[in-house]
Amino acid sequence: MDNAEIMEKSSIDVENIRADFPVLSKQIGGKPFIYLDNGATTQKPQAVIDRVSQFDSEEYGTVRRGSYRLCERSTQLYEEARQKVADFLGAPTKQEIVFTSGTTQSINLVAHSFGRKFVNAGDEVIISNIEHHANTVPWQVLCEEKGAKLKVIPVNDDGELIMEEYDRLLTDKTRIVAVNHVSNVLGTINPVKEITVKAHKAGAKVLIDGAQSMPHMKVDVQDIGCDFYTFSGHKMYAPSGIGGMFGRMEVMETMSPYVTGGDMILQVTLEKTIFAKPPARFEAGTPPITQVIGLGAAIDYLDAIGMDRIFEYEKSLLDYGTRLLQEIDGLRIIGNAADKAAILSIYLESAHPHDIITMLDQDGIALRGGHHCAQPTMIRFGVPATARASMAFYNKFEELDALAESLRKIIKFFS
Amino acid sequence: MDNAEIMEKSSIDVENIRADFPVLSKQIGGKPFIYLDNGATTQKPQAVIDRVSQFDSEEYGTVRRGSYRLCERSTQLYEEARQKVADFLGAPTKQEIVFTSGTTQSINLVAHSFGRKFVNAGDEVIISNIEHHANTVPWQVLCEEKGAKLKVIPVNDDGELIMEEYDRLLTDKTRIVAVNHVSNVLGTINPVKEITVKAHKAGAKVLIDGAQSMPHMKVDVQDIGCDFYTFSGHKMYAPSGIGGMFGRMEVMETMSPYVTGGDMILQVTLEKTIFAKPPARFEAGTPPITQVIGLGAAIDYLDAIGMDRIFEYEKSLLDYGTRLLQEIDGLRIIGNAADKAAILSIYLESAHPHDIITMLDQDGIALRGGHHCAQPTMIRFGVPATARASMAFYNKFEELDALAESLRKIIKFFS
Amino acid sequence: MSYDNELYQQVILDHNRKPKNFHELKNATHKCHGINPLCGDDITVYLDVDEATGVIQDISFTGSGCAISKASTSLMTTFLKGKKVDDSRVVFDEFHKMVLGEFDPEKQEHHLGKLTLFMGIREYPSRTKCASLAWHTMIGALDKKTDEVSTE
Amino acid sequence: MSYDNELYQQVILDHNRKPKNFHELKNATHKCHGINPLCGDDITVYLDVDEATGVIQDISFTGSGCAISKASTSLMTTFLKGKKVDDSRVVFDEFHKMVLGEFDPEKQEHHLGKLTLFMGIREYPSRTKCASLAWHTMIGALDKKTDEVSTE
Ligand SMILES: Cc1ncc(COP(=O)(O)O)c(C=O)c1O
Ligand SMILES: Cc1ncc(COP(=O)(O)O)c(C=O)c1O
User: Fold this and answer.
1) Strands, E assignment, chain D
2) Which residues of D fall within a CB distance of 8 Å from B69?
3) I need a surface site. Which of A70, A321, A405, B362 has the fewest CB within 10 A?
4) Are residues A247 and A386 in the same domain?
5) Model-level ipTM above the cut of 0.90
6) What's the pLDDT tens digit per position in B276-316?
7) pLDDT value at position C1?
8) DSSP H helical segments within B153-257, as ranges?
9) Domain total of chain D
10) Which of D123, D124, D152 is nearest residue B266 as measured by Cβ atoms?
11) In this structure, are B249 and B385 located in the same domain?
């Protein structure tokens, strides 16, 4: 299929979709704004913005503890949003969805409440070489504290996990395997089901970091079989300040609390405290109420389009963009996995990534430059940083044309 | 001063203020909505609601890591909001303001990052008998883990801390004293400056839980002299999902990270990690960006009215309400501190608090019933629960008339 | 909300003030202790069931709690006395669904009699447990599965 | 944003491609190593100052980094060669304030010459350090306070 054919087969009416996102009609320095930093955070559709302001204007009340009607209603809406997340992820029950402030908090929760309880001296934790710092540092800290060993699944030059190495790393000392579903730098879609099956066979639990997958593809945690699946709302068109995770009830019930305080306890005396069942056990204090409601609205919005269609369209953006960039001399795409999400990590021989970002910005194009909170991945590929184009279903083929043109100009400038 | 005089001297044009809060013109079951659960959470002014939706519509971008202009701008707005919080609290520098998801998270941060490092076996932690669970459970957990001792400042029958007992509790083993500025159940305003001076003399650090004070009075952390001052945005007319704390730089610099992940590190390799300076050290992951902007807008709104005026007006609401309730037979006000914020905890001999709440609700009046996440306080006063009216500057004297009338009706009903 | 839906009607207040069958039953064939930790409701239900006929010959309760839980338990005892065990299970089911808002006695055929008084509680999900605690405890006693039920 | 403000002008690109004074200075009287850990910019500035006259007789640099930092360092060396130490401090101050947006050479009297080229960086606060690293390092060398400066 060439690029003309790819465009033709597009499964999405992108102009209609773009009209839902007010920021996308913005101009930047007199040029149309091209937002390609969706891996960092996504823009919000009007439906989410409106739901948030309507809720705060008319329906805002605290949740779980009040028994006047305003509160009963906000609690109901809050729990409905939990059900929406459960359905979106294919979780068996809504009690297996815990709300947190984001992926970072979710992974820290697991590293603390599962890790500090079940990982001991001599035990092992496995991550991969292409993890975000959020899925690296908490495990480093845990292993250091416990005298456990952190093992790392290596990747091949295309950025794919080397599964034979994974097989060798797994032992009966492995307590947990924590890998992302999609790498935020390389776009690699990891074989999370296979990883889970093997880990379970070895007696280890599995955390899948879904920050970059949940917004872009249909996810079914029961099919994957994982014990934890973490996500951030702000990367899936929901407000900032909200995220969460799926956790298998059976596993969560064995875990101690993480953050402690109000609403996660059954009883507190000055001598002792009895903790509530999950998910309440892990939701201490007043939660991000409005943001949970906004997350529910974002899921409704995504469901209306359909995750399969979104995946298909973004895949066509990826194919289109890859083809364009491959034609540019002096440009290297870092990450060429066979199974890949719509992320293009770009390295130019002639220009420093930070210069690329600033120059692209002067053409109205927003990309992120840097190590993308994944320094070990940068080290693996021998580059200090990359410029990353990460796409969403509101991006257009024409925007990738503009990116390619701007990159050519930059290369010319700098050489 | 009688109640007519109190009303006369009111420092606030309450109808004008009420017009700023869309939810306050709501009807509930055909009756005007009377919201008196401000201790749980506060309603949002239009200025905050609009700022949030405008930011999400036009200016939303990730912070700190991007270097395209959208991001530079959102980072700038984010840091401006930090400065607003610093100014609002009288903090010396904005680097001493850490954003978290709320008070609960802030206290957990200190219990972890300060506590786990500096509190050891045999050491002591002091709290009071009138703390929220958020300022009780984290210290219980810490002390249990470390083999340290949790000591509790008792209160007299009016709900005031017994300072002579505090003097006796303080020893050279005390590592930290953690008390609230205002009790969420009793309204007691604690002598936080005196508490701090004495603790510092004993060599202990001081955390003041400002969840119930910062929204209602002028706070000056330098005058108090405390090392930490924690707060929740949702209790101060800002969006849910955001909070934070002031932490003295000198103390924060000695502390280890709490939540780990992206943006709080200078460098991560698979072997080790170098952590950033505060506040970044304590702000792992993508923060609640929009909510920080909303918090800034809430502070602007409060500043425009003036915290001193707010305090004065709420004090007149308290005096007015106290007088009304004291006249009701069979009603007991729990908490009668000389120095008191606008909170009235009500106990009826004839009716269970949960019944009171439901019946009040049928008159359109929203109060919270229960133990208010302060079970040790309930035990101290020998009641299982109370009905709490907690006021804000948008409440009216007439609303307290309605409350008193409804309570009389309930007492009649149940006896 | 119309006045009809108001929860605290005279009957409920009366039962709260002067609960019926509020005593221990020495010769109980079945008994169970039920608690609602969030509200502090704490009751024990006693039943005297004739094994041959399956008739609830006597039923009583002790304990403390909010008005809703006390009135609900009191009304339950007056309602079930003399009824068959099988029928009481049907009523439990209807009552339970009614307070959760899953069964509407105004639209569907029912066997609830004046128990429909508790319909208004649908609007207060956090309080449905106050109304249904009595019923869960009664079923717990009949099933003899457990000596204690909790709504948490 | 008008074209005038665009940052990557020919001069900057030229200095990036072919930096001036890009070598070690064996007989340096002052030298300092500067790093910007976030960007990875890493430079060393060498100065040969005549103690008697206070004149910077020679100045050079080595290292690597982004185009802004390389061009800024290169331009700084050409600009300062032959200037007095005292004057270089004045220029440092103006330059530093300009990139932070606190000094506007279009409106205020200045001594920046063609260094105003870097004015556009005001719009990119995260990149001001790229432009000012050279200057901080130069001052570090003159002050001999430290062997290394870091922008973090
Ligand atoms: C005194 C006090 N401390 C702490 C908290 C906990 O605040 P949050 O639930 O916002 O974390 C509250 C509010 O519930 C409170 O009133
Ligand atoms: C794969 C991956 N994991 C974790 C994170 C951290 O998410 P957050 O910053 O929302 O906590 C990110 C995003 O930055 C990510 O891309």
Assistant:
1) 30-36, 41-50, 55-64, 148-150
2) 123-124
3) A405
4) no
5) yes
6) 899 999 999 999 999 999 999 999 999 999 999 999 999 99
7) 33
8) 163-169, 192-201, 221-224, 249-252
9) 1
10) D152
11) no
